Amino acid sequence: MIAKTPITPYYAVIFTSERTEVREGYSNTADRMLEMAKGQEGYLGIESAREEIGITVSYWKDLDSIRKWKMNAEHLMAQEKGRKEWYQNYKTRICFVERDYEFNK
Amino acid sequence: MIAKTPITPYYAVIFTSERTEVREGYSNTADRMLEMAKGQEGYLGIESAREEIGITVSYWKDLDSIRKWKMNAEHLMAQEKGRKEWYQNYKTRICFVERDYEFNK
Fold first, then answer.
1. Rounded to two decimals, what is the model's pTM?
2. How far is CA B80 from CA B26, B49, B56, B76, in A?
3. Which residues of A sit within 8 Å Cβ distance of B?
4. pLDDT band at B97 (very low <50, low <70, confident <90, very high)
């Protein structure tokens, strides 16, 4: 689903990743992190797709919400495990969403 | 591939979409638009993945580059055709990338 974000401005975190061969534990942790993110203060929505690379974009009210989610204890453990096992490479980009527009049939 | 963008700041355009059932003409036009985007002034890279939704993030030097690409004549025709045939819904978000970091195994 395309995230139903509020009127601009808000923030986006673009997380682009390439996986390793390791599958074990990934889905459960990803599901758990998604559920937790949704409960965070300032969370606005998420969009995700994976083919050769994975792109997950999460939307947030402000930088403080992003910082708090990044430093969440369980999330820190998941990030650590991600670097050890699940991700070959990733890049995280913190963005200020200035403007948006949409089309609906 | 994860886009090899320069040091921040730069801009990102997050294009999130849901397709219709129409396949005809889509791949050719998408390939052509990708090739054209790469030739635009201020183009920095692109990342794309599709599952239930498609996410394409293109990176740009500044807002002027984004504006010029949006208004490119052949791209305008493709956008028009996209609304008519290929896309059920889409959302475009124009973002200022403030900060990024990466992990490589």
1. 0.97
2. 12, 22, 18, 6
3. 1-3, 5, 8, 12, 14, 16-18, 20, 47-55, 57, 83, 87-105
4. very high
